[in-house]
Amino acid sequence: MKNVVKPGNGKKIIIISFLFIVSVITFASINEIQFNDLSSIRKCAAYSHSEENSLLTMKSSENDIRILIGIPTLPDNHQRRHFLRLIYGTQAVAGAKIDVKFVFCNLTKEDQKILIALEIMLHNDIIILNCKENMDKGKTYTYFSSLPDILKDDSNPINPPYHYVIKGDDDTYFRLPKLVETLMPLPREDLYYGYVVPCPSMDPFVHYMSGMGYLVSWDIVEWIKDSHIPKRHMIGPEDKVFGDWLREGRRAKNRYNAKWSMYDYPEPATRCTHELWPDTVAVHRLKTQEKWVRTLEYFNVTHNLKPSKMYHIP
Ligand SMILES: *[C@@H]1O[C@H](CO)[C@@H](O)[C@H](O)[C@H]1NC(C)=O
Ligand SMILES: *[C@@H]1O[C@H](CO)[C@@H](O)[C@H](O)[C@H]1NC(C)=O
């Protein structure tokens, strides 16, 4: 029957094709329902720690505080991403949905196409922006201004997709439960949160939040996309430029200086450093494995490791 269509067979073929299409659609939608069921079951399992009614728990999960942590990296930094997944994948926060995503510009090498695609298939935590890798030429602008379109999903009634968006450094360690704890009492609109620069300053209105990691509420993300102010002031130290936009646009009436819950690692001591202490949201300038390890040890991150006959860690 390949290319040869005998006269008179036309109708038959149309009917057969039609039946075929109908069955494909039916099959696909059944699968989708099954898939949706599966994923909602998985969600319930993840959220319901007790024997609470699973519907109730799912409903309350919609009231969770939603935070996106975008970490700019480069496509080839597989190791760093692997490490950060370890750091963030092991932190759970009740009452919060926190997504960590790695952000870079267009891929530039042939091998990246396959390696990054594989990474996405496994982790689904990568955002590739429409830009060329650059420093101080607008990657931060591209990040924030692209998010509303990237995250727009008409089939998802949850709005905004995130209450807060963070731009974080890849040498910063965020302690997610503490982060959420400090955010809970804060406004979900017009908020700019972080470690104010210069280091001795305690006034979040003078001048801007350090690139170690800062947070804005979703309305500011949308403003960055829509306003003409960022568009005409793009070049320069990105985090300072970010602060300039907010000042010029008279945005971020609500500001929160997270100093000294956020700070640089104690060594080498500067005016930006602080000792490790329990009241920590973020430690920055973790430039070596040794500094990471000492920080993770200090915060007892493996204290919940389950005993098992399969391993023994002294
Ligand atoms: C990035 O890649 C997309 C899709 O391949 C292309 O359309 C776009 O022009 C590229 N952007 C830049 C800035 O190179
Ligand atoms: C880590 O665990 C030790 C021993 O249980 C405890 O004394 C210390 O306060 C804990 N540190 C933090 C930051 O929770």
From TrEMBL:
Pfam families referenced in this protein's UniProt entry, alphabetically: Galactosyl_T
GO-annotated molecular function: hexosyltransferase activity
Record-linked InterPro entries: Glyco_trans_31 (IPR002659)
Main subcellular location of this protein, as a coarse class: Golgi
Location in or out of the cell: Golgi apparatus membrane
Enzyme Commission number(s) from the entry: 2.4.1.-
Cofactor requirements of the protein: Mn(2+)
Keyword Cytoplasm recorded: no
Ranges that cross the membrane: 12-30
Alphabetic keyword roster: Glycosyltransferase, Golgi apparatus, Manganese, Membrane, Signal-anchor, Transferase, Transmembrane, Transmembrane helix
GO cellular component, as recorded: Golgi membrane
Membrane topology: Single-pass type II membrane protein
UniProt KW Kinase keyword: no
Pathway: Protein modification; protein glycosylation
EC primary class: transferase
UniProt record similarity statement: Belongs to the glycosyltransferase 31 family.
Protein name: Hexosyltransferase
